[in-house]
Design a protein that fits this description.
- The chain is mainly α.
- It has one domain.
- It is built from 16 helices and 4 strands.
- The strands form 2 sheets. Strands 1-2 form a two-stranded antiparallel ribbon.
- Strand 3 and strand 4 form a beta hairpin.
Amino acid sequence: MIYHLIKYLDGLFDFPGSGLMQYISFRAMLGAVAAILISLCFGMPVIGRLKGRNNMEEQRKLGVSGENLKEGVPSMGGLLIILSVLVPVFLFGDLTNVYNQLLILTTLWLGLLGYLDDYLKIHGREIRGRKKGFLYLISDKPVSATEKGGLSGRFKIIGQVALGLIVAGTICFHPDLGVGEKMLTTIPFFKGNEFNYRWLVPGEGPLSQILEFILYIVLIVFIITAVSNGANLTDGKDGLCAGTSAIVAVTLGILAYLSGNVIYADYLNIMYIPDTGEVAFFMATLFGALMGFLWFNSYPAQIFMGDTGSLCLGGIIGVASILIKKELLLPILCGIFLTEALSVIIQRGWFKYTKKKYGKGRRVFRMAPLHHHFEKQGIEAAINSPACPHHEAKIVMRFWLVGIILAVLTIVTLKIR
């Protein structure tokens, strides 16, 4: 709103300094700083409002340890991330830009979906006890006395697919997104790094065009669903998902800025995509929000993001990569998310196969997702040797380091062809 107000006043009075708001780099820094400040200012009030604070020192004195120590830490911290992202975006962003509109929609849509899941995990028993209402219909029933349930997995997928269809429909049919380049994307490690999805559909004519659009829409839906669920699985340790997502956000912001600048795009010989500077601005704001959130979420966490944050973060990353035509770089850039998801798929698949074949299920990992495997490995090592202090923090830090390496490799692919 401030962006549009200054732009309007600049047209009337041409006052000094108003041109700064036209620079993406300036607004990106402004958005990031504002997001950090909002997180820091509203962090403790949000934690208090969620009514989940516990005195960890007192619990330690009572002999409470491990995951049980975290039972009193509030979830739904994704609300703080969403607030810290959207306020600067509405203040300093170009709200007429279709890229901004899609990213705002993604934030609200998946944030609401995750919020419903977190709400049902906390109040599920009360709602299911009433046996009425919309929340009862979409919730999972607990299978044991200790399980809290949550949003139905089927309903989650439906929500993610619906968002994917909206994003895909907008990209395919919006007049401002470039009709000729809709099916193009960037493919790494090749000299001619532009890949056209039309090459996957044989023949020409109306039927081929329909198949092309169907293929592209299915791909977009798959990417948004996969990255969103991958981020959700990564959210299992203090600061893990937030830190990893921050690294990805910075990388996508850099790629968006380079792709939206005709000079840099020409120099690097990459696809020029007009107006994607707003994606860079949004990613910078997201980075600032995650830095502020990490102030409270780093080990030992005072608040968890919950599905409210993790589903939202994965969706934003997936949609942003699609908008700047870098979705084929996601297996490298989001290698942490991919590995976490694959570890769950491999673990479940192998367990079911061996149970069917041998009568008893066997596991590939000590525990899935992968970060739990390393945690359990560290616990077992600590039993046979002196205590391993803050092993969880060490796991998170090493995952961050791997994420940074993957981010650098992703940017380097611009020149490795």
